[in-house]
Amino acid sequence: MDLDAVEELREDLDAFCAEVFASIPRRDSRQWGGCYLRGLMLDGRRKSIQPMAERLPDGNMQALQQFVASSPWEHTPVRRRIATKVSQAINPDAWVIDDTSFPKAGNHSAGAVRQWCGALGKKSLCQVGVSLHAVTDAASVPLDWRLFLPKEWADPADARRAKTGIPDGVGHREKWRLALDMIDQARSWGLQDQVVVADAGYGQNHAFREGLAERGLDYVVAVREDVNAHPGQAVPHLPERRKGRGCPPQPRYRTPARSLKELALEQGRGALRRCTWRQGSRGSMRGRFLVMAVRPAGAAAHKAALEKAGGRSGWDGVLPPETLIAEWPPHHEAPTDYWLSSLPADTVLRHLVRLAKIRWRIEHDYRELKHGLGLDHYEGRTWRGWHHHVTLVTAAQAFLTLRRLDPKTQTSV
C-alpha cells in the first residue's frame, strides 16, 4: 500500500494496536508498535528497520530498533490477544502446522546453521521457524511461532547464546515437539480445539501423531508412500509360550507390514472414489481417492502399542486403525499423495479431502508474510528480536485479514 492508503487506515489500526498491544506497559512502546506495523504494510522492497523508518513521516530508526531488538516487552501475551481475536473472527476449520526458513548471511543469528532452506530449495545457512495457523478456505493467520534451535546451538557454554540472548534452559527441541508445545499453548489460551493438519515432515513421525491422539485431537497429516502399515482388518496373534523358555511372547502379525503404496496398489483403481472438495478460482477442485483403514507398523508404533498396554495380560497388541487417504490421478501408475487421518471411519470423503488439501492456505500465508510484510527481512541477530519481529508481522497480517473479512472494507497488501 502507498502512504495515503496506510494513513487512511490509521484510526482503525490504532484501535487494533491498542487492543493487541495492551500488555505492553509503556505507552511510547505501544506507539512504536503501531509505527512498525505501518512500516510493514507500506510499499517498499525491503522491510528492515532503516528503510521502513525512512519511508514513514514519523519514522525513527533508533526508536524502532530499540523497540524490536532490546525492549523487554513479552511477545506471548501479544500473540494470545491476536490468536483469540482472529480465531473468533474466522472460526477456523483446522490448525495447520508448518515451518519456514529465514536465509542468513552469517552464523551469528540465533539458531542459524547450515540446514535445509525451503526458501532457497537447498541446504544453506538459515534460521527455521515453526508456526501454528488457524485456517479456513477463505482466511488464515498464524497463532504462534517457535524458533527452531539446532543441536549446534544447544551447548550452554556456547558464547553465541549469550550474545544473541537465548534464555537459559532453552535447548534443542525437535520441530514436532515444538509443534505440540504450540498446540498446548493455544489450548491454554482457551482456543477451541481443531483438527490438526501438517505436511509429511510432521505426519511421518509416529510420535507426533501419538502426541495428538494423547491430547484427544484428531488429525489429517501427509505421509510418504513408504510408510509401513498393516490392513485395518489385520489382527496380531499371541504365539504360544513354551514353558520355562524366555520372556512372555508378544503379539505379532501373521504377515509382514507393507508400504502404503503397496497397500493402495493392492486395492486397485476399482476402489477409487471421485470427490469434489471445493471451488477454486479456476472452477471445481476434483480428484480420485482411495480410502482404507490401516494399522501403523514399525518400531515407534510397536513401542506406542506396548505403552498403551501398560503391561496388562491378555492384551492383543492392536493399535486403533488410522484412515489412509490416497490421491490417484488418471494416467498415473500409482497414487501421488498420501495422508493418514484419525477422524471417524464414517467421515464424509469430501470433508477428509478438504482438510487434507487445506494446507494450500499456508503457502498463501507465507507468500503474504514474506513478500508483502517482510517476515524474512529482519536483520537483527537476537532471540528477542526475532520473536518480536515475527509477532509484529503476524499482527500486521491479522489486521489486514480482519479488514478483508469485513464486508465494509476491501484492503489488500
UniProtKB/TrEMBL annotation:
Superkingdom in the source lineage: Bacteria
A Pfam family reported for this protein in Swiss-Prot or TrEMBL: DDE_5
Residue span of region Disordered: 231-254
Chain ranges of the Transposase IS701-like DDE domain: 19-283
Listed name of the protein: SRSO17 transposase
Organism: Nocardiopsis metallicus
Native organism taxonomy: Bacteria, Bacillati, Actinomycetota, Actinomycetes, Streptosporangiales
